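Our collaborator T.R. sent over the components below with a one-line note: 'Predict the complex.' Nothing else. No constraints on interfaces, no templates requested, no preferences about which chain binds where. So this is a plain run: every listed entity goes in together, and whatever single assembly comes back becomes the starting point for the next discussion.
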Amino acid sequence: MFEFSFLFGQFLGGLTAAMFLFLIASGLSLIFGVLRVLNFAHGSFYMIGAYLAWQFVHSIAPTPEGFWLAALAAALAVALLGGILERTLLRHLYSREELYQLLFTYALVLILGDVAKLAWGTQQLSVSRPPSLAGSSELFGVTIPHYNLFIMLLGPLIAIGFWYILQRTALGRIVRAAALDRETLGALGANVGWVYTGMFMVGSFLAGLGGALVTPIKSIVPGMDVDIIVEAFIVVVIGGLGSFWGTFLGALIYGQVLSFGILIFPRFSIFAVSVLMAAILIVRPWGLLGRPLK
Amino acid sequence: MRRIPWTLVVFIAALAVPFLGSRFYTFVASDIVILSLFAMSLNLLLGYTGLVSFGHAAYFGIGAYTCALLMKSANAPFLPSLLAAGLVAGAFALLFGFFCVRLTRIYFAMLTLAFAQIVWAICFKWNDVTGGEQGLPNVPYPDMAWMGAAPILGNFRVGDHFYLSALTIVALCFAALRRIVDSPFGRVLTVIRDNPERAQFIGVNVRAYQLAAFVVAGFFAGISGGLFGIFNRGVFPDFAFWTKSAEPLIMTILGGMGSFWGPAVGAAAFIVLNQQITSFTEYWPLTMGTVLIVLLFVFPGGIAGTLTAAVARLRVRPKAATPPASAPHMVKPNA
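Returned assembly:
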């Protein structure tokens, strides 16, 4: 029915999409895992990261390889923004009901969406690929841009890096303890407030980095914030909110279902992932690799 | 001094809006009336049962599509179509709610959001039935010829006629909601909100009650959506998008979820604010976001909560001088 090279091409397309989604969704999942806040503004951070990358490429780093510096600077700036918002506002809502936290992050979506329009207008913006990765290679009859290969490698690298930090270092132990029992960790002398701020910044950094790195592939448009948050949300729900490897698995599944769903039923690929998410929520509300929470 | 029947006063004032003769006032009033039902239906979950649904737009959207499809494609009459909108939305609320009430707190919110996304995806992609991205434009107004023939009403425009129909229907829905929250069933819901474990101990089937509240809320959201589709002269997939689910939440927080009428007050404030702000700046979301943050941090009780607190303070102060019997019963505590 389909040639192998065609299917392989679809697979790689799905894989690239999956690794982008993993970058963004992992931040959402980390923040939820530790802070128990479902951060709607995560998509906005992603969008701000994309706009800032464009800004930095054109202002502070207009050299050919300046893209890398601009992407890093954008991600750091978003992390800083996240840190400030957590420190000044969000932390005061931890003791309140979930509704207040949800509405607060939604208020950020509204505000940041308009701030982006004010600062960068509503026309599409785009960033060209850095020259070092502008080429492409052929593999099994499929042409793969080097930039996509880089993203496919970056995803697993970040996953392994986080796994190592979370599972094998003292810092990771504190973070895992904060996710399990905030009071006890505080009683043991850890500065829980800063652990929360730090995790929120790391999560925001990943959103900003995802946004910055996506710019050579996708154009930057208003509305990318509310679209991506839904996708990231589906990914973390499939994999299990708060579960790092779950998010990785969720992103892989999402990318492939979307990529191959288009072949099977062209119109209903969004529908297919939504149904998959609902099915998982019904059977295992805590996701494929998550743990049930009380 | 007798208690002033505020509900009746507001209803009569609302009935008088078409007499102002302004197309714009009728438009704004229709918007307020229809969306206040959306917000009030959500508050049955939020304020009375303690369930944070972030997917209430699903039932609004289902109602809107059901009513529009019946009226536009099947030429069905208005009232049966609207009733069908509520019933279909309620049926979906039963199906989705069955799974949602098994989860608690944030997981409940997420599953409601997930189901709403499915509804949105169907509306967005099922071109043959829902019109896909383009939605269903040109939903007809109901046949209100009898109003045109009636003595005073005959002079009004068709928009006014629809407004009066919507107002009557929404008022009936509010009366029904009031009966529901004041009934033993409604009391049990508040017990569940305050302490689900204790409710369980005294023999209440918590999930069944939550599911019943979810279905009732879905039904009224469906009615609201059906009315809104006609008012808006078209139904679009955005009606079920996740950002739409935030609107009744904001209205409820704005008005105050601790009181019965709070969400309606919030809907009115939200829409008037929208009209005022969009008339001089396109940055309505920025303004709304800022207002929302101020509300969350400074006035968590919303307009109704803040007013009730202020009135209570005013009533306490002169208490030493005047006997309490003469205190005006203008604001019902716990209303």
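Summary for T.R.: Confidence is low (pLDDT under 50) at residues 320-335 of chain B.
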